[in-house]
Amino acid sequence: MERRKITVPGVIRMKRKAKKIAMLSVYDYPTARLADEAGVDIILVGDTLSMVLLGYDTTLPVTMDEMLCHVKAVARARTKALVVADMPFMSFQVSAGDALRNVGRMLKEGGADAVKIEGGRCIAPTARAISEAKIPVMGHVGLTPQAIRRFGGYKIQGKSDTGRAGIVEDAKALEDAGCFAIVLEAIPWSLAKEITEQVRIPTIGIGAGPHCDGQVLVGHDLLGFYEGHIPKFVRSYADLRGTIREAFSDYVTDVKSGAFPSLEESYENAKDSQEDRHPEAGDT
Fold this sequence. Notes:
- The chain has twelve helices and eight strands.
- With about 280 residues, the chain is α/β, with parallel strands linked by helices.
- It has an eight-stranded parallel β-barrel with strand order 1-2-3-4-5-6-7-8, surrounded by seven helices.
- The protein is globular and about 70 Å long.
């Protein structure tokens, strides 16, 4: 059976039908194309591109224009997946008016299907304004990386009774505000299970255990692009860092030794070059 285009109502129905939701955070055309072909339900263009692609230490520096550039690329790549654009730091916190202008850009200019904002009860009025503007909005509670300065680091949230109760109320407030789904990040699995059972909208876990309605990981993490500390909740499905480094090293060796390019990889006459033109090259 041919896979249908994923829609916001379709995502909500997946919870009702107890179908798990696979969400992946990717940032460019070729990777999004592969994710879409692999059957990913939701592609999140996460503000984690600040760290993953731009080399910053946190998600805070990435701008609206930088996010839009990547949202456009991902939206052009997908054919079936729902594309959700992360709203960067200070693009929605100042006022509901600012938030509406910026989320509107993500749909109108970026081609996204929905947006994601971080925060709980304090941001619920903004989530409601976005939803009432007929723009699908996904919430995000628990560890919210844009609040990293307040948390004092990437720390598990909801460990105390007070913390647990607060995150439950945050999730309910976002549901009441019209969010169609909620990301639960870095909270105890028992708390994630409690929230998932109490809200009618899907929960998407990252470091929140197996009882959420779906899961999300950063694509570069599951592909094994990085060395050093890997969060406990990340499962690596490949070692692309090793594979890519080896390929680059082999290329350098071949160039230095003169083994690349060979005559077979070189042009001899005009006919060769005409037959092997780059597909995007124009007539000259």
